[in-house]
Design a protein that fits this description.
It comes from Jiella sonneratiae. By secondary structure, this protein is an alpha/beta fold. Helices cover 44% and strands 18% of the residues. It has an 8-stranded mixed beta barrel, surrounded by 4 helices. Bound molecules: ligand C2E and magnesium ion (3 copies). The site of ligand C2E has 24 residues, from strand 2, helix 2, helix 3, strand 4 and strand 5.
Amino acid sequence: SAKANGRNATQVYDPKMPQTENEDRNIAIVLDQALDHDLVSLAYQPIVDVATGEVHAFEALMRLRGPEGTPIPPSVFIPVAERTGAIVSLGRWALRTACTQILKAGLAPKLSVNLSAVQLREASFPLFVAGLLSEMNLAPSSLALEITEGFDIASDPCVLEAIAALRNLGIEIWLDDFGTGYAGLSWLQSIDFTLVKIDQRFLQASATPEGERFLKDILQLVRRRGLSVVLEGVETPEQMAFLERAEVPLAQGYYLGRPVSVDAAASLKRAVPAAE
Ligand code: C2E
Ligand code: MG
Ligand code: MG
Ligand code: MG
């Protein structure tokens, strides 16, 4: 335990460490208090138009701090929040906050927010989103909801109904981390996605000729289905050059911009026209 490591040991949650039941319970307690005690916030990462360099959208990424200020990564707290159900209220908070901070404030023409399947199983979710947009007077097409192919939602009729209802409202549905889940290809056929985000591992693997060919095949598949595409995890100028060669329209990654606070996102946006 951290205590056994001496008084200087900072309690950083290491996702590679096996999680104990105790840690799980501690995180569940933090999640319970997160909204009341301001332990949760949003970071924003730009999704960039490759041809123009402009910010096409911001993706909202949830951040959580323990009571002592220790950051707890999403890979650790999101699964716990899904198990306890805390993701429902946290997810609603994230949607409302991101719509206010990005769309209402005019920081980008589009916003994407990550969604858990647990939220989609809530029958009232599409109505909640519709209410939010009309209350803030926002165009439904300015909002995209990202769904990860983590578990098989395509066989859950409630989830499929919710997705159809959201699409009917004019909201975009994006498939996140494409190529990493087990149901990926059938999802492309059965769900009315607007855009596919190709998981960063494929760009990483594209440094070899075989990896590059494979990525190009994936891009072609997505394009042929009439879907837009974002390549995730652009970290180097070489990868950026590949994107230009392959005419990938949209990209995201540390090379183009890390997730930042809303204030930094605002100045990032201002920096674009000011530099011209
Ligand atoms: P994601 O939606 O696929 O988000 C992309 C993740 O990759 C983010 O990690 C981001 O910081 C990271 N990333 C971005 N560019 C690069 C890059 O160039 N290189 C590398 N190595 N990483 C990059 P983060 O913020 O830790 O989030 C992890 C995951 O947690 C997200 O993956 C998403 O599935 C989930 N998540 C985050 N916020 C929320 C939320 O509000 N609701 C739900 N349900 N899930 C969320
Ligand atoms: Mg995402
Ligand atoms: Mg992703
Ligand atoms: Mg991911």
